[in-house]
Amino acid sequence: MLLPDGSIWYPGSKRKLPAPTLLRVTVWTLAFLVAIGGAGLIVEHYHPSWMDPLRHVVGTPGQLATPSTTTETTRPASSSKEMKQTSQTANSVTYSVPGSPYVLAIKTTQRCYVRVESLTSRADLFNATISADVTQSVLVPSGPTTLEAFAGGASLSVSFLGKPVGAVAVLRFAVTYNFNPTSS
After folding, report:
1. How far is CA 148 from CA 7, 155, 175, 177, in A?
2. Predicted local confidence at residue 28, as pLDDT
3. What pLDDT is recorded for position 59?
């Protein structure tokens, strides 16, 4: 029988014998690992940024894995027949498109969950998982739209009146793409 002080008592014995060394080392090692694991969980819960050096972050091809700073740029909207980037932050990009209606064509290289929402009606224009190597077209009848792709490696082309007006070579994960028509 194992006693609370770590010693073993054998039936018929008048004195306690110490636990074998291997058993004592195993118990103390497990107690140490449980304490370290508990401390790690507490740190992860209350200060997750402290664990960043231990994480392995893989970015999409051609993009930085972690943006170092948030930059905001604003360019005047153009009346040309091309899509123009008007602003960018760490987690969103805004484009102006020549007008409405316009078509967003998402081409995937792997399975990708895509959500396209009309900001005018707050309705989903498209909300599904697209298989690998498929091009999904989404017609935006009017007004501004947001697009989110929940996997890396997809690309986007935008067309207005049946003609291509711009493209995004790689849709980044956790980035919201906003499209604003300059005329309706």
Report:
1. 61, 12, 6, 6
2. 95
3. 53
State both tokens at 111.
Answer: 């399975």
Question: Sign (positive/negative) of CA torsion 87, 129, 117, 97?
Answer: positive
Q: What is the pTM of this model?
A: 0.55
Q: Assign 35 to helix, strand or coil.
A: helix
CB 49 within 8 A of CB 66: no
Q: In the numeric block, which tokens belong to residue 59?
A: 């970015």
Query: Using CA atoms, how far apart are residues 51 and 40, in angstroms rounded to an integer?
Result: 9
Which residue is associated with the tokens 């970015």? 59
pLDDT of residue 75: 46
In whole angstroms, give the CA distance from residue 75 to residue 147.
Answer: 21
Burial class (CB in 10 A: 0-12, 13-18, 19+), 33: exposed
